[in-house]
């Protein structure tokens, strides 16, 4: 049954709660087609055993997103992403899920959750940014095949250049060693943030810093606005990090990176972390002349969400 839910799962990046958009009736019908007789009630019990839960409220609207895409559009994009993942996996090409985790203040601030301690941690009574020693910007890369996470801990700003540099650091440290024969890479990303589907700088830096230097074709599929919880990194990596440092004040960058890199699960998740202090300026503009030089091929299905960048010398 896990295979039926592989591309139909969403989750909370903080608590690890998972849910699926398939009903128990539909799952039972799929299983019956596979000659596995099962009723919806049994499917419900199995789902609870796998960590799924019924939802009450649906958080489908991102802040500022006044015009979310209609449900048929969202569903079509979900199906397209699932098809792309299956095709890349069939060709043994890497698939990564990327996003920026919730930004954290560095200092003696309360961190939600509980931990076993002899004495309670003493923290500040208010979370004023002016009292912080800095801010942690964790950009994560989750390898869906290897079940490995790589988190670049920025200290300045979340920008397209920072997002791409984080992916390049992952490729240099892990990706090209695990997939030494790979000629293509699939990136699953949200529509906003440093990897925004609208950001020219995101596509520009992917071409110039990853695609061309390493001679690898980059395909990007964005989850629709308001659908970030379906991005695998949210419930397979970020939720585990949140649980690992629950109740522990992030009083230094070293503490934060330690808890990130010591995150592990019985299912085989392992995580690496790297502190990245480079300063990034916001508001980078890519002119028409620069942008039109990119070897960018929009896909026929939702071209603003799905596209491929080809190396310049291929």
Describe the structure in your own words:
The termini are far apart. It is built from eight helices and eleven strands. The protein has helices spanning 24-33, 40-49, 71-90, 160-178, 200-214, 232-244, 253-261, 288-292; strands at 9-11, 18-20, 95-100, 104-106, 134-143, 148-154, 184-189, 217-222, 270-276, 296-298, 306-309. β5 (134-143) and β6 (148-154) form a beta hairpin. By secondary structure, the chain is of the alpha/beta class. The protein folds into two domains: 1-56, no CATH class; 70-309, Ribonuclease H-like superfamily/Ribonuclease H (Nucleotidyltransferase, domain 5). α1 (24-33) crosses α2 and α4 runs parallel beside α5 (200-214). 32% of the residues lie in helices and 18% in strands. The relative contact order is 0.17. The strands form two sheets. Strands 3, 4, 5, 6, 7, 8, 9, 10 and 11 form a nine-stranded mixed beta sheet that branches. A two-stranded antiparallel ribbon has the order 1-2. The mean pLDDT is 88.
Count of alpha/pi helices: 8
State mean pLDDT (0 to 100 scale). 88
CATH superfamily of the largest domain: Ribonuclease H-like superfamily/Ribonuclease H
Measured on Cα atoms, how large is the radius of gyration? 20 Å
């Amino acid at each position: 049954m896990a295979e039926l839910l592989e591309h139909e799962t969403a989750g909370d990046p903080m608590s690890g709660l998972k849910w699926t958009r398939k009903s128990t009736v539909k799952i039972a019908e799929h299983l019956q087609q596979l000659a596995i007789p099962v009723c919806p009630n049994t499917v419900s019990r199995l789902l609870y055993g796998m960590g799924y839960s019924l939802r009450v409220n649906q958080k489908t609207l991102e802040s500022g997103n006044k015009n979310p895409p209609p449900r048929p559009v969202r569903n079509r994009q979900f199906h397209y992403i699932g098809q792309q993942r299956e095709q890349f996996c069939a060709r043994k090409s890497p698939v990564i899920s990327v996003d920026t985790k919730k930004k954290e203040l560095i200092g003696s601030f309360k961190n939600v959750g509980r931990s076993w301690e002899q004495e309670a941690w003493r923290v500040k009574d208010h979370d004023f940014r002016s009292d912080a020693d800095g801010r942690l910007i964790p950009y994560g890369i989750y390898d869906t095949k290897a079940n490995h996470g790589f988190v670049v801990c920025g200290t300045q700003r979340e920008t397209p250049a920072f997002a791409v540099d984080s992916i390049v650091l992952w490729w240099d440290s892990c990706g090209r060693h695990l997939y030494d024969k790979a000629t293509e890479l699939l990136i699953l990303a949200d529509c906003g943030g440093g990897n925004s589907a609208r950001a020219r700088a995101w596509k520009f830096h992917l071409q110039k810093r990853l695609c061309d230097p390493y001679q690898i074709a980059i395909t990007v599929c964005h989850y629709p606005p308001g659908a970030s919880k379906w991005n695998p990194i949210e419930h397979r990596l970020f939720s585990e990090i949140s649980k690992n440092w629950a109740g522990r004040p992030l009083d230094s960058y070293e503490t934060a990176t330690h808890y990130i890199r010591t995150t592990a699960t019985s299912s085989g998740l392992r995580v690496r972390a790297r502190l990245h202090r480079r300063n990034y300026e916001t508001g980078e503009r890519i002119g028409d002349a620069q942008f039109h030089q990119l070897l960018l091929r929009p896909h026929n299905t939702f071209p603003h969400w799905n596209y491929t960048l080809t190396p310049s010398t291929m």
